[in-house]
## 1
Amino acid sequence: MTQPPGPSGPYGAGGYGQQPPGPGGGPYGPPQGPGFGAPGPYGGWPPAPPPRRRGLSSGAITAIVLGSLAAVGVVLFALAALVRAGQPQGTEKIAFPSTLEDGKYHRMDGNAQVEAQERQLQDKLPSNGTAKVATYSASSSGDPTAGGLAIAGAYGDIDVSSAKMRDDMLDGMRQSQSGEVVGGRREFTPGSGEVEVSCQLTRIAQGSTAVYAPACAWADHSTAATVLEIDLANTSPGDVDLEEFASVTARVKDKVTMPK
């Protein structure tokens, strides 16, 4: 029976690594058609194509990113102290440009899952706080194997210390069903040292495949957000440079925050 296509994700359409069944119902059987399922012109059977390597499909990547963001968001936006009703609001807001990191990452718009995630997080905020969620692909075409960034944050008047807010956001990653925190949390002051960033490494698995994803958080008096990177090349902890990703996060903060 033909399966309907999976939902579209921030990095493109796809399901969870399913392949069309081949003869005998197996997922990796040779396709039917000329040259397959019948002897060749000299009585021999043409060799079947090699089995496809199981990996992360676009749908799996979508599930990984949004699953991790959901855990972050529940902790972040459950904090009643994030925005105090009746107090002056912060002076900055979060807005997502079309590209980040000099055009390396491209904002993926119009994804129903991302929009639903933002609405869900917004519902947890007081009326004068604003939730912001976005995903960026490392490919302008949304190629899922290119990976990308996911950002979940909010702006308002934050009445919690920066260190506590960053810790609370990253603690949310520990509640993700798809991720497992690896190693300890580290603190950085990249660049000019004006932005404090907390980072940790998360092992995110889908089926038999796992990637190691850095996540970093910032918080100040107006804005707070977590930035998560998905890169399929990061198959071991040694593939990830947390200090370098802290610098990426500081640059992202600089680009997505602006005066109201």
## 2
Amino acid sequence: MTVIAFANPKGGTGKTTAALLLAEQIARAGASLAVLDVDPNQNLLDWKRRRDEAQKDTPFEVLGRPTEDDVIDQLDQLADSRDYVIVDLEGTASQIVTMVLTRTDLAIIPLEPTPMETRQAARAIGLIRRTAKMVNRDIPHTLVFTRTNAAFQTSDERDVRAETEESGVRLLSASLVRRAAYTRIFRDASLLSELRGQSVSNLEGAITNAREYAQAVVRLIEATEAEAA
């Protein structure tokens, strides 16, 4: 059982998209999982509700925001019965975010590679590290670049990569590029794979990118587990 939490105090970083893409790829690989939507915007829960209304099957469970009193018990129960639990956290530092982090095996911080978003991501890293000290255990965490340009690396991305490497913060080996398909899955309450046969620009490129991203996450989980052993 592995708990993966997506965190970033800034909105619009692709946090919910990254969580949903990972959930679909893990489910397609045959693992069991549940998604816990802790973000007050409830975008994942709304996505699932619209799928239910359209009578579309979803290969994983999506659950709404628990109360602070219930979140630990719910996480533990889900982790005992699923291979993976993916949590889309709210942006602000709060008690419920801290409580989820105490049960997290990997925290993922999505951000567009710009100096402003890097500063916001540093706040999420600070919260993760403070929580790790509080519970006296390491909470593995990584940045993942989102909405990158598939054709070339911008100067901002080069600068942020260099800064990240210098600071020693882990950066996921795969980025999520800017693709029209990643906005369509929310507009149409679809899975990425369900867009085949529709007029979506470079869909196969988006599917390949999502698969490479999910594989990078799983490899990182395996590496952190090996380090801890």
## 3
Amino acid sequence: MEYENRMKLEFDSRSANEGFARVAVAAFLSQMNPTLEEVADVKTALSEAVTNCVVHAYEGKVEKITVECMIRGQELTVLVEDKGCGIADVRQAMEPLFTTKPDSERCGMGFAFMEAFMDSVEVESKPGEGTKVEMRKKIGRILNKFEQ
């Protein structure tokens, strides 16, 4: 696929790096002249994806998370990838309120939030090999006749 611009980050799977990823992606997104709501939506979805990697993929071990962003026209694509434990049943994992950590403070809404704030979310995962989450969002609202 031909993209107008792209960037790629790799960082340790530490919860402190979730904020770094949010700011970096928001800065990259700024070239698309997004609304504040669009920036907040992308940052929220990204936060959920990165937090899933930190909490679930590596079970407390510090490994690498990769975030890649691509721009094509008015569409932003965000990929979040880990090489962790993977997800045995992606469909089940994407169900609202499903969590593999019921004894913790996890609420099982990560994928639901990603889907709510982005236009599309696709998850590929293999147990023992890792997970890749691809999220897409069209940036730039269409003005109606009263706003033009």
## 4
Amino acid sequence: MSGTKRTEPTFQRNALAPALLAAAVLFLAPVLLTAGWGIVVLFVVAILALIVGWFAVQARQWVWAAVFAVIAVAWNPVFPFGFDGLAWSLVQPAAAIVFLVAGAMIKTPRD
């Protein structure tokens, strides 16, 4: 082994793991909704949107915080809006892409 020293990253992506989980659920949402798992999809997406939104607040990335507040409201299981049809089916993968992009972009300095 050579004497080179590895440098530690200067930032961390805390939102990446919950964003990946939410994206997986949203990509599978059309199948899950037809199988009667709609309420589970709403709970998982809303909770993970709040988690990713919190990491955005910690990173002081206010636009992402607002985006995930809207996602949490749209997918809220307590007072569901009852969206359905083709438009709702198209919004699911679009939201998954938003989660993936945010998970990659939201980063905080490492102490």
